[in-house]
Amino acid sequence: MAGRFERESSQAFDDGWATLEDLPPLKTEVHEERARTIITRNESPDISFDRSINPYRGCEHGCIYCFARPSHAYVGLSPGIDFETKLTVKPNAAELLERELAKPGYKPRTIAIGTNTDPYQPVERERRIMREILEVLDRCSHPVGIVTKSALILRDLDLLAPMAERGLVKVALSVTTLDRKLARSMEPRAATPTRRLSAIRALSEAGIPTSVMVAPVIPALTDSEMERILDAAQEHGAAEAGYILLRLPIEVSPLFRDWLLRNRPDSFRHVMSLVRSMRGGKDYDAQWGKRMRGEGPYARQLAQRFSLACRRLGLNTRRRPLATDLFAPPSAGGVQLQLF
């Protein structure tokens, strides 16, 4: 136990993997970036939000299928090991957010966080960038939707629960598989499936609208678990659900293929054949309206299974939009901007 005058302290965090073998050490480099803006806008017609925040670039979870890996290639780093070990943090994220929310004419709509890399990845325990962003959104009564694979989100229940009472927050936990060994291989540094389900329960019991994202659905590998994941999530308190088909952009495809050959060689041909059958004969089709769901008979079967399971479980029957009428711009930031 550290003395109370020590300058540094450590805190144990249970990610649920204590009963499986330890992973080999992986050194992470963290670089700071003084961002100029923090809210990213998009006009994609097949997603439900038009703005998002990414507190981090890169993700320690190391999910082999992550469609965000190509973002590292944009800055001259590899989408492979660099994506997992060379992280960029934005220490001025909360300050920038206040400034952007204070701009004259700003109109609030739900800000999505966790759509690119996980805001609750392990580095967040130390850097607390996501925590600072939530504090700004809470003060301004601004709506936010969060997606994560991490039980670390429970650290922020003291902020999330009061925001939920005002209709300002929704949380989605991503669950790819219930198989611990498969999850350990595909998502080596994310929380166990059991910990994610426990987080759904804790969030739901705290009054926070919580959903499960069955994502990504990998044909002939995890697609058979769709109904079981939905069953388990509903039992733990999830009220909504969604799913996304495996996405293999150009830099991700060879990484996933290599992983599949090493870990599930007997399934390689079957998995990739089904992937291509839903992607117009290619590993990936980035067209809007197709990239999330795919097309063809197998894709339609997945959609029907998902719809039937949700109907049976009563999921997605109580969708409510987040509140935007409570928004109060940061007064100090607004005054400061007006000086110029």
Task: List strands and helices in order, with pairings.
Layout: E1 29-32, E2 39-41, E3 51-53, E4 56-57, H1 70-73, H2 81-85, E5 86-89, H3 93-101, E6 111-113, H4 124-127, H5 129-140, E7 144-148, H6 157-165, E8 169-174, H7 180-186, H8 193-205, E9 210-217, H9 226-235, E10 240-245, H10 252-263, H11 268-277, H12 297-313, H13 331-338
Parallel strand pairs: 1-5, 3-6, 6-7, 7-8, 8-9, 9-10
Antiparallel strand pairs: 2-3, 4-5
Helix pairs in contact: 3-5, 9-12
Can you walk me through this structure?
- The chain has 340 residues and is of the alpha/beta class.
- It has a domain at 29-245: TIM Barrel (Alpha-Beta Barrel), CATH 3.20.20.
- Helices cover 35% and strands 13% of the residues.
- The protein has 13 helices and ten strands.
- It has helices at residues 70-73, 81-85, 93-101, 124-127, 129-140, 157-165, 180-186, 193-205, 226-235, 252-263, 268-277, 297-313, 331-338; strands at residues 29-32, 39-41, 51-53, 56-57, 86-89, 111-113, 144-148, 169-174, 210-217, 240-245.
- The chain has a seven-stranded mixed beta sheet with strand order 2-3-6-7-8-9-10.
- Strand 7 (144-148), helix 6 and strand 8 (169-174) form a beta-alpha-beta unit.
- Helix 3 runs parallel beside helix 5 and helix 9 packs parallel to helix 12.
- The longest helix is centred in the last third of the chain and has 17 residues, at 297-313.
- The chain is globular and about 60 Å long.
What is the percentage of strand-forming residues?
5-15%
Shape call: globular
- Total helices: the number is 13
In the predicted model, the low-confidence regions spanning at least 5 consecutive residues are 1-10, 333-340
- In order across it, which strands form the biggest sheet? 2-3-6-7-8-9-10
- CATH architecture descriptor of the domain at 29-245: Alpha-Beta Barrel
Structural class: alpha/beta
